[in-house]
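pls read this protein.

:::
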Amino acid sequence: MKKNMIMLAALLIGLCGCGANKAEETPAPVEEKTAETAEQTEETADAEKKALLVYFSRAGENWEVGVVEKGNTRIAAEYIAETCGADTFEIVPVNPYPSDYMETVNIADEEKKSGARPEISDTVTDWESYDTIILGYPIWHGDLPMIVYNFLESYDFSGKMVYPFVTHGGSGLAGTPERIRSTAAGADVKDGLALTGKTIQNDFDSVKADIDTWLADNGLVK
């Protein structure tokens, strides 16, 4: 009887040992956890990416459209920001430009000749949190308005992607994306979009398709 009990105890110990070894040898689903972690990391990174739409626009008397309450660039900017889900920042001068068209033309001409940098009334908060900058401006005297140059020189564009769009009366982009590249050091400047101010004011629905295509081609649609 004693011998049988000894043999039974040894058998139980052996079974327990086998069970423990079997549990220890069962591999953890390392690959599944790694894939899940990578997916979560990618989703978190995407969520952290932010777009900021920066624009300069002028209301009042405009070329070919008369006196307007909203500037051409602002109309396009509001639509783009809504479509992209981007935050917005308006470049507002400390000293506003006149409502009279020719007065503004003359002031802008003098600013360009002198290389002026008109003062901006506000600054972007949390600039570092944005990796995508959508930049809108009118073409003045075949160039960026000088106040936009001031904006470009006031921030560090290293590692940021810049998508320019312009409103114009016939000059198109006027080579301004290249000027942005040379001014905003470190910026990755993408292909720009040119929109005529007259069409924006009088038939905005007709330019929405062009805007939507440009946004989609650049992966900017929300």
Residues 2-25 form the longest helix (24 residues).
